[in-house]
């Protein structure tokens, strides 16, 4: 199923949900809430796995296989001289030539130390992530992880991997985050503010910062 087919299926499902709920203003929120509930389970189940390193390696392998299976291409930008993004999906934080992606490209042009990872499907950007170097103990920070509305796991664009008897999903967010962290030097930190993003970060090796009361602050430590 390509992006246009996923879009039609997603909109049709939303329309059916609205008809059933008869609460138009909140139908999309309710549709997303069901996915978030499942993500809370994924997040918590992953945290309880006995062999976390092996689980992360399994997710990384499944991510590469998923990208290859669906013909997804990744690229990483560290300078403004690299090829710009021409066609974009429907993102939460970027709209046409405005938002976080355009802003990051502008900051690259000014010489700021940013890394932008992109995932494309048939020449359309369907996912991106941004990291920037901070002045705090040499950490880099992943500030944005954004996936096209019609390319998220709840649209069906995902694969499944069994780990310690449990089933876990891999999707576009995994592909773009893996591309980003493979091109950045740890340690990396992020503020993962929802269950879905926390699951993605944790399944690729981020862990909660010990002693930090904020459960959203995650860290990918440097190799020892």
Q: What are its keywords?
A:
224 residues, alpha+beta, Aminopeptidase, 11 strands, 25% strand, globular
CATH superfamily: Gcn5-related N-acetyltransferase (GNAT)
Q: Under the CATH scheme, which class?
A: Alpha Beta
Major sheet description: 7 strands, mixed
Class from helix and strand fractions: alpha+beta
End-to-end CA span: 42 Å
Helix content: 25-40%
Q: Mean of residue pLDDT? A: 86
Radius of gyration: 18 Å
Within the CATH hierarchy, at the fold level, what is the topology? Aminopeptidase
H/E order of the elements? HHHEEEHEEEEEHEHEE
Instruction: Identify the CATH architecture.
Output: 3-Layer(aba) Sandwich
General form: globular
Low-pLDDT residue spans: 22-26
Number of strands: 11
Please give the domain count: 1
Instruction: List the total number of helices.
Output: 6
Give a brief outline of the structure:
The chain is α+β, with helices and mostly antiparallel strands. It has 6 helices and 11 strands. A 7-stranded mixed β-sheet has the order 1-4-5-6-9-11-10, with helices on both faces. A two-stranded antiparallel ribbon has the order 2-3.
What do these coordinates show?
By secondary structure, the protein is α+β, with helices and mostly antiparallel strands. The chain has a single domain, classed as Aminopeptidase, CATH 3.40.630. It has six helices and eleven strands. Strands 1-4-5-6-9-11-10 form a seven-stranded mixed β-sheet, sandwiched between helices. Helix 2 (27-47) runs parallel beside helix 6 (195-203). The longest helix has 21 residues, at 27-47. Residues 22-26 have low confidence and may be disordered.
């Amino acid at each position: 199923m390509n992006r246009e087919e996923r879009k039609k299926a997603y909109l049709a499902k939303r329309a059916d949900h609205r008809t059933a709920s008869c609460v138009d203003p909140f139908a999309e929120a309710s549709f997303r809430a069901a996915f978030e509930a499942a993500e809370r389970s994924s997040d918590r189940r992953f945290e309880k796995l006995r062999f976390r390193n092996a689980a992360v390696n399994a997710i990384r392998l499944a991510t590469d296989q998923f990208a290859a299976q669906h013909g997804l291409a990744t690229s990483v930008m560290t300078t403004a001289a690299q090829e710009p993004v021409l066609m974009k999906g429907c993102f939460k934080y970027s709209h046409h030539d405005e938002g976080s992606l355009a802003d990051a490209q502008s900051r690259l042009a000014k010489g700021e130390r940013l890394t932008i990872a992109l995932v494309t499907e048939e020449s359309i950007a369907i996912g991106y992530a941004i990291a920037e170097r901070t002045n705090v103990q040499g950490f880099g920070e992943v500030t944005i992880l954004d996936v096209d509305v019609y390319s998220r796991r709840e649209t069906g664009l995902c694969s499944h991997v069994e780990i310690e008897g449990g089933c876990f999903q891999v999707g576009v967010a995994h592909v773009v985050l893996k591309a980003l962290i493979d091109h950045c030097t740890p340690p990396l930190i992020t503020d993962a503010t929802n269950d879905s993003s926390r699951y993605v970060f944790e399944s690729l090796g981020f862990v909660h910062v010990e002693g930090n009361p904020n459960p959203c602050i995650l860290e990918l430590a440097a190799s020892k």
